[in-house]
Design brief:
With 422 residues, this protein is mainly beta. It is 4% helix and 36% strand. It has two helices and 30 strands. It is globular, with a radius of gyration of 20 Å. The N terminus is likely disordered.
Length: 422
């Protein structure tokens, strides 16, 4: 049996620790942003560190008014240095309005409220934000939280006070530990997600459901992983049209290189392994994406013919695996953590946390043409004023603009929010 602390180190070092000395090195390097296409890249916010937040490890989400919301892994008010392998500050939730105004909605205190949020937020129809922290809470193994906007519209952005509540605090035992991915809702308002560890004697993670009832939320474990069917789910779950759940684990399975799994709703959330990685990629740390035909797509951190990761497809029904793109390393490195997003034309977008033209990551596009997929770099990060080392999933708005975050770089070396305009 592994210790929970070991799983904690695995989870956090896979994302945040990539910065370290590389941030400093590239901050002193070339500061001119580079784009390999006609898109226009711009930084729309730079994180200042400490009170202003630092190192966003998740992408942003947008409400109907065009305001952006996100989290930072570090920054805030309170030190989290007593938690092994985690940043020195406990993280924040922020808002960036459509008009460009920035403010912190909440600073985590590493108490019952949690610490170090890492997954993308969820916006409910009533404007309430839901998210996860991978540490803190009553059990010290992470929380699910909500932030509700003020009932009366504020006169200015500084006046608004959001109300924070703890939806659930993980104890690190059978209920799971370290929820570091995003949440997804069903039509009834229940929330679904994953924990990177905990759940059983093997400590390999869980898939959970949170059900609101009588003013509180009750947790139901849908699946506890054993090493044979996956180890370390890292990026939440995705529904298909029939209400089944799908996701990936970064390790475990028959060959120890991760799996794609399915949980069938009609069979009491029966677990099926759709793909065990041995060839065609390894360590799928991002979640899955469906096309309109129900085919499943995801990316791996390693493996493939170039040894630098892949994008793969599992065809609907037969779930036959096919590698559709092999990253080569150097200027092309596989998506390490970000989920692929699909536009209406069938193009995929994602980020890489390293490599690229300047070694600080990239934003890329995969376009289907002549039976194959063509790679285009939309922006290669320098690690300087344009940011560097993106980790979170991109956001595509109705006008075709892409939004994202970098965990490092920027004038203050604390990360940025960026926009790419077609």
């Amino acid at each position: 049996m592994r210790e929970l602390q070991t799983a904690n180190v695995r989870s956090t070092t896979s994302r945040g620790a990539v910065l370290s000395a590389c941030t400093i090195a590239f901050a002193l390097a070339m500061l001119i942003p580079h784009s390999a296409s006609a898109q226009t890249y711009s930084v729309i916010h730079e994180f200042t560190g400490w009170l202003g937040g630092a190192n966003p490890d998740a992408g942003v989400v947008m409400d109907r008014a065009g305001n952006l919301y996100g989290t930072t892994l570090s920054g805030g008010l309170v030190t989290c240095g007593d938690v092994p392998q985690l940043p020195d500050w406990c993280g924040t939730v922020f808002e960036l309005t459509a008009g460009g105004q920035f403010r912190i909605l909440y600073r985590f205190a590493n108490s019952t409220d949690g610490a170090n949020p890492e997954g993308e937020l969820l916006i409910a129809p009533n404007g309430v934000l839901y998210g996860t922290t991978m540490s803190g809470g009553l059990g010290r193994y992470g929380t699910i939280f909500s932030l509700a906007p003020p009932a009366t519209p504020p006169r200015d952005i500084q006046e608004a006070q959001w109300t924070k509540k703890i939806v659930y605090g993980f104890a690190g035992n059978n209920d799971g530990a370290i929820p570091n991915g995003p949440l997804v809702p069903d039509h009834a308002g229940n929330l679904y997600g994953t924990t990177n560890a905990g759940g059983s004697g093997g400590n390999y993670g869980t898939v959970f459901e949170l059900i609101p009832a009588d003013g509180r939320w009750n947790e139901s474990i849908l699946h506890r992983f054993e090493y044979s069917d996956g180890d370390g789910p890292d990026d939440g779950v995705t529904f298909d049209a029939a209400g089944n759940l799908y996701g990936t684990t970064q390790g475990g399975g028959r060959f120890g290189s991760g799996v794609v799994y399915q949980l069938l709703a009609a069979s009491g959330w029966q677990d099926n392994t759709l793909n065990d990685f041995q060839q065609g990629g390894s360590s799928p740390e991002s979640g899955v994406t469906f096309d309109p035909a129900g085919n499943l797509f995801a990316a791996t951190f390693g493996g493939g013919s170039g040894g630098a990761g892949t994008v793969f497809e599992l065809s609907n029904g037969s779930w036959t695996p096919q590698t559709i793109y092999n990253f080569s390393g150097g200027k092309q490195w596989g998506p390490s953590f970000s989920k692929l997003i699909l536009d209406p034309a069938g193009n995929f977008y994602g980020t890489t946390n390293g490599d690229g033209a300047y070694g600080a990551g990239s934003v890329f596009k995969l376009t289907l043409s002549d039976g194959g997929w063509t790679y285009t770099s939309l922006h290669d990060f320098t690690g300087g004023s344009d940011g560097g080392y993106p980790v979170g999933t991109l956001l595509l708005d109705a006008n075709g603009n892409l939004y994202g975050t970098t965990s490092g770089g920027g004038q203050n070396s604390n990360g940025v929010v960026f926009k790419i305009t077609p």
